Amino acid sequence: MYAFExxxxxxxxxxxxDLAKPDAKALAGGMTLLPTMKQxxxxxxxxxxxxxxxxxxxIAREGDSxxxxxxxxxxxxxxSKDVETAIPALASLAGLIGDPxxxxxxxxxxxxxxxxxxxxxxxxxxxxGATIVTDKRRIEAKDFFTGLFETALEPGxxxxxxxxxxxxxxxxxxxxxxxxxxxxxxxxxxxxxxGVRVAVTGAGSSGVFRAEPFEAALNxxxxxxxxxxxxxxxxxxxxxxxxxxxxxxxxxxxxxxRAVEAAA
Amino acid sequence: xxxxxxxxSVKRTEDIRFITGKGHYVDDVNRHGQAFxxxxxxxxxxxxxxxxxxSAALKAPGVVxxxxxxxxxxxxxxxxxCGWMIHSKDGSPMKAGAHPALAQGKVRYVGDHVAVVIAxxxxxxxxxxxxxxxxxxxxxxxADTASAAKSGQAQIHDAAPGNTxxxxxxxxKAATDAAFAAAKHVxxxxxxxxxxxxxxxxxxxxxxxxxxxxxxITLYTTSQNPHVARLVLSAFIGLAPExxxxxxxxxxxxxxxxxxxxxxxETVCAWAAKKIDRPVKWTSDRTEAFLSDAHGRDxxxxxxxxxxxxxxxxxxxxxxxxxLGAYLSTFASSVPTYLYGTLLSGQYNIPNIYCEVDAVYTxxxxxxxxxxxxxxEAAFVIERMVExxxxxxxxxxxEFRRTNFVTAFPHQTPVIMAxxxxxxxxxxxxxxxxxxxxxxxxRKAASAAKGKLRGIGISAYIEACGIAPSAAVGSLGxxxxxxxxxxxxxxxxxxxxxxxxxxxxxxGHETTFAQLVSSRLGIPMENVxxxxxxxxxxxxxxxxxxxxxxxxGMSAIFKALDKIEAKAKKVAGHCLEASEGDIEFKDGKxxxxxxxxxxxxxSVALQAYVxxxxxxxxxxxxxxxxxxxxxxxFTFPAGVHIxxxxxxxxxxxxxxxxxxxxxxxxxxxxxxxVEGQVHGGIAQGVGQALLEGAHYDNDGQLLTASFMDYCMPxxxxxxxxxxxxxxxxxxxxxxxxKGCGEAGxxxxxxxxxxxxxxxxxxxxxxxPATPQVVWRAAQKTMMKRAAE
Amino acid sequence: xxxxxxxxxxxxxxxxVDSRTLLVQFLRENLRLTGTHVGCDTSQCGACVVHVDxxxxxxxxxxxxxxxxxxxxxxxxxxxxxxxxxxQQAFQDNHGLQCGFCTPGMIMASVDLVNRLGPSxxxxxxxxxxxxxxxxxxxxxxxxxxxxxGAREMGAAATPQxxx
Lengths: 264, 788, 164
Hints:
The complex is a heterotrimer of chains A (about 260), B (about 800) and C (about 160). With about 260 residues, chain A is of the alpha+beta class. In chain A, strand 11 (about 170-175) and strand 12 form a beta hairpin. Chain A contains eleven helices and 14 strands. Chain B is about 30% helix and about 20% strand. Chain B contains 19 helices and 28 strands. A seven-stranded mixed beta sheet of chain B has the order 3-5-1-12-9-10-11, sandwiched between helices. Chain B has a five-stranded mixed beta sheet with strand order 7-15-14-13-8, with helices on both faces. Chain C is built from five helices and five strands. Chain C starts with a strand and ends in an 8-residue tail after the last helix. In chain C, about 65% of the residues are buried. Chains in contact: A-B, A-C, B-C. Chains A and C meet through helix 2 and helix 6 of A and strand 4 and helix 3 of C.
């Protein structure tokens, strides 16, 4: 790691003030940021450790939504009774992230802000039509993810919580990269009053995306059989040593069918 | 506190320090005033170094020194060596390029060592390394094994035209060609033995420490063979004479071959410690380990098997291109030759074998021995060939093997090895029964009903271990003898220290070696300590690799114990006022034959040292003996592994459902430890077959340079294993031991691939058979089945 | 530099450290608790697992500064009163280790697994629970056996074990 200044604000306003420092970066769970810094691929001048900011924690049912504080750890989401009751698919997704030790540190806010193309939460946020709440505004998931590791967040803007509308049915299926265990393909299927949304992570060359052909088919008939013969084009999907675009396109179909089966 | 017998599964005594966090690995060594080294490594696979400007690095905070290859050369420190001379078929010696510890004028792989920065802290050294400006001129690179020797490729070493190190061969070409001409059936297969990265969990590390008062260098290093390291660093690299160079390999966190070799980093740390008169410490991070630890395997092979009408194998023809990387590592040249070609006969009676190996340089990390070293590659060739030959000729693969097994011993193969003992049909029968081979069709049907493909794969492997008779390996080009040493020191109160040249880095020597002493001298294991890994304590040794510590290392201890017993009988004779010839030693007691006059071992030890009961001019006081054991043959562990797995054809995911192994390791000292060795070997072999593969792109960049991309076997990739043994006693050592460390890694890759291709209706798959690879093959299988 | 203070294995520990100091570096270099190991740079191998405030984490991927005020338990703090923790004993009893390098992290992860999921663990749960720990020696067979025993004995013990 390169040297940096370390700050540990106690309040949201304190965090905002610290983040205004030149080249400051928020440290949430650190599960991506710290390894990146260890490899000297990132060199923030200051790290603003959010661990003590109480305003960023907590899981609550608010009307038809489930609201999760940005600093909520994956392990907390995975074992939360509120999440399990409201959106079991989200609890299940959280329990599939990384490994037990990573889940004890990694946070939902950090995952969304980082927008790793193989991260799991972006698929849930997009499929469920979540609202990402920051210290400045509310951003719809469809407007939030803007490209690989890119989001609509402005410099210094901090996610405070994420609000997930509760779907009628949902499920997440993930096929892991055998080495990293990140999603090689992850498909989140959600059936909501407004229709079906299918979001895909791990596969898109510009990050998480919606599989519209699948959505159209499932809006007519929410069953695995509706997806027979429907596919996502391989163009625009990642190719790497683990999986080429054709294989990923195929896996998206398989994972989508299995997700619908699990949700139905 | 009783005596522990050979063959008892006693718990390991060394475990206590490991489970309580008190292990002592090289990175745990801290010397007063130590500085830290960071190596600047080449980002290019092939380039000339036109200029190195480290003036800014020298001025960076905490920096003590920056050295390049010029500094090492100026001190007349030599390059790294390859200690096994191979001759090409035309009789010419292998063509080896120089291997400087720090590059001189040229870099030849990504990760090659360009300079070293030494600073007060590691962070400072790394910060400063980034300030070094190196001007490179990039050259075209070659990373691909199969095409490295083709014309038009970049030339890596001037000394090796066509990037060819040697064109070696073994066997009788004319006789083999004649066998093929007369064959009823010929099976042909192209096989790639994928390149692996060993990845012991402890990364390599070194601490060099110089004492100017005695002009002595001490090197703490992660080594499987500290004495060989000292020999090479002293006699060949010229760091210091042996009596002024101490090498200590304390607890070492796994090796699997990769810590046999003498590397640039440890050489530089030892040299620089003297240069700056301050301890110098280096610990590899995992990325450096991926880039610069010696890799394993990497063969491209075409093989042909000739059968007669009755299904007897009449000939085997093999051509292999072996990638040795950018430089010849310490034993690189021996791996694809005498550790490979000599095992191609497998468990089979094959009258004619001819093997050619072209060894090539590429712009990749050096390749050397990795668990099994040559023998997994041989087993993969022969076990894939017999499997496919059986299928092609409509024979049951198990019965086809049985038809061709060697059944009479000793058996001289056409490729040097003389198998001394074994019972191949017995292992096969037992394994087939344990695996419920007969029940397979029902299980296949059950899988098919779930939309899954099930397959079974047999691997009947043999290996040559306990390496090896010194004169024999000398005649094959080895630069050293491969005996082992032991010294047994009995203390006056009867406790025992055993100094061994073997080195334990997970094998449990502190337990098994103590078991041998306990059973032999009739004293509790608690009274025995095993000393290893320090050249100042143990005089000389050859180290641990090639499953040799039991067969060779323990045989040396056995021989030293013979001498202890003989000497102690003399002392006991004086104590009991009987002649030496009338003394019997049993259960820790010396007894005068036919009487009840006896004295226990501890009392004899005391009498040996107080020397009151005998004339010190006629019998030397003390009780300490040493021995060197030079084996008379290789040992030949063999067995049958059976893998049964299920494929999800929709995703290509593979689940290993059951694993059965029946191994013949000769006599077992500690079955619990033996089984553990087999488990670990299987995991590494399954890793090779399904998960692991080092992947360089065409520019020589390593794409699998972390655990993010190089897939290590995890707990949920594997089942629990069913492991049993049979025993045919090894005739070439006093304990009857064959060795067990590498068997699992040798046996398992063909078992997995044979199972996969069985499930896939004989559709071939390459290793590692990742989900993508298996899915593609499964598509073809499903289409074929749909068409049928 | 930042000042950090925490309790490690029940003892107070504090120092002024470079802000980039990782918890594992603080443990190994400042406190000379070298039982916690570093086996990779990408937070995957798990050789560095310790418990912070009762939860298993990878100490190579957390800043020492972030552990201000925390209760940290390392492998050195697992045995109490000269008696091995049941999970440590189980690893020895079942030959759950060979070279020993991954072992401290493996044992800390195993204790955490039982703390989370209770003493009756089936093989599949254990294998899945070891996702964050890599062993190169044992093939995991005996690690799984060790955890089955360790879990059972942790369950049998009257008092909660470690990291509470």
